[in-house]
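ok so i was messing around last nite and threw this chain in just to see what happens. nothing serious, just curious
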Amino acid sequence: VFTYLAGSLSRIFTTLQEVDDKLILYGFIGGFLLNAVLAAQMVYYWRSLATANHAAEIGEKPKEKAMSSTTGASPAKGKGPTTRRRG
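result:
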């Protein structure tokens, strides 16, 4: 997201230097603003405790951030691999 933000800023700069079309410039400014909103949300919610609090509300233990040193090739403690998304 942050690279998209930098790319949008470079498009605005290039458009100001090379093109006199205001419609193209306004489109790139709009894209930059939307990317800025996404970047701000990522920074704001980066260390959010909402996941741990939500897990406590529904009666589950919060998941650990770090996994053990396994590669994930073998099933964990008798459970088989699954492709079903939960949550």
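not much to say yet. The mean pLDDT is 79.
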